[in-house]
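Dear support,

Our group has been running a series of protein-ligand predictions, and this particular one with shikimate-3-phosphate is the one our PI (initials K.S.) wants archived with full inputs and outputs. We had some confusion internally about which version of the output was final, so please treat the block below as the authoritative record. The input we submitted was:
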Amino acid sequence: MSELRVTAITSLHAEFSVPGDKSISHRAAIFSALSNGICRVRNFLPSEDCLNTLHAMQALGARHEVIEELVGYGPTHLVVHGQAMRLSSPPGPIDCGNSGTGMRLLAGLLAGQPFTSELFGDASLSSRPMGRITTPLGQMGALIETRGTKPGCAPLVIRGTALTPITYQMPVASAQVKSAVLLAGMFADGTTTVIQPAETRDHTERMLASFGVTTRSHDNAISIDGGQMPVACDFTVPGDISSAAFWLVAAAALPGSRLLIKDVGLNPTRTAILKVLGRMGAHMIETVQHGAGEPIGNVEIHGAPLVGTCILAAEIPNLIDEIPVLAVAAALATGRTVIRNASELRVKETDRITTVVNNLRAMGAQVTEFEDGMEIEGGHPLHAAEIDSSGDHRIAMAFAIAGLFATGETIIRNTACVNTSYPGFAHHLQAILGQRSTPADFTLPTRSHL
Ligand code: S3P
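Confirmed final output from the archive:
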C-alpha cells in the first residue's frame, strides 16, 4: 500500500501552480456535455473524482478527445462534443468512485432524463447521505431508490421522468445539493428555486452563465428557468485553492518562508482560507489577473508566527474542505483555535472531525472534540507518528503537512487516495522536501496528443 514519508523542513521558497479545481472540473465535464456544440476545456483536473464524472458523461453519449494529458493520470486539455441537452441511456451502472460531488450532481442531471440509470460508488461514498438530494428531487417528481446497505445511501437507481419545478429550502448549506436541484431544474418546465441557509460555492451559477444559461440570485435564493440550451464555449479551469491550501498552510506556519501559488481560483466563495490564515498572522498578497467566469490569480504568502483564531459560522461552508489542514495550522499556532458549526465534516469522505482529532493527538497536539467541531490549543510541539489516511485524500495531505513540522519521520499510510483530488501531490511534496539539496522542480510531466 502506498505511503508518504515526511521530515521537518526549515525553509520554504517556491513558486508553482497546483492542478485544476475539482469542483469546477466536475461542472466543466457536465455542462460542456450538455451544450449545443464543441467545447474546449483547458486545465481540467485529471483526478479520479473528475475522471469518473467525465466518463459518466461519455457513457451518457458525450464523447471527448484528449489534446493533452498529465502523464500517468489523464486529460488536462480536452474537446467535448456537447449533446444539446439530449443524453442517451448509459450502457450500465455509472461508477462515481469516491466522489460525493459527482454522484449528487449526476443524480440531479439524471432525474429528468427519459431513461433509468444507476449510480454507485466506493465504500466511503456508499455510506454518505443521499437523502439530501433524493428529497428535493423526489419533490420534483423523480423516482430515486437508495439501494445501499445503509439506509438513504447509494447505489441510487434513478427512474427519470418529466420534472415539476419547486422552491426548495435547503436544510444544509451544500453547493452539491444546490447544484443537483439546479441541474434538475434545467429539465423542468418552469422556474426552480433553491434557497440556501448560508452562502455556498457558486461555481454552478458562474459556469451556467459562461454557457449562456441565466440564473437569478437574490439574497441566498437562486432560480433557474427550465428549457435553456447551454451554448458551447471554451473554458479554462483555474488551479484548485483547496489543493493550494496545503502549501499555503506550510508556508504560513514557517517564519521566513515565501511561497507564490500561480493561476489559482480566487472565487470569493472559496477564499475564506486566505482570510483565516491572514487573521492568524500570515502575510499575503493576492493579485487577481482576470475575472471572466471564475476569478483567477496569484497568491504570495510569507510565513510568520501564527496565532489561534475563531472560525466564524458563515466561513464554514467556504472553507469546509480546508478544515483538516487548517486544524494543522492551528496546532502550529500559539493560542486557541475554535472550529464549531462544522458537523458537515462528519459526512465527508471520512468523519473528518474524528480523523483530524485522532491524528493530531497522535502527533502530540492538544485537541478537544465536539459534535460540531473541535478546539485546538496550539503551540504543543508535534512529533512524528504513523498516520493512516483512512482512505481520505484531504486527511493524507493535511498530515503530510503536519509532518513538515514534526520531529522525526512521519509516515502517512494508505495515500493512493490523494489522486482523488491532487494528482502530483507526492511530486510537489518531494520538491519541497528536496529543496535542502537541489533546486526544486514542480513541473508535472504532460504529453500532447496533437
Ligand atoms: C463541493 C461542495 C462541497 C465540498 C466538496 C465539493 C462542490 O460539499 O465539500 O468537496 O463541488 O459542490 P457540500 O456542498 O456538500 O458541502
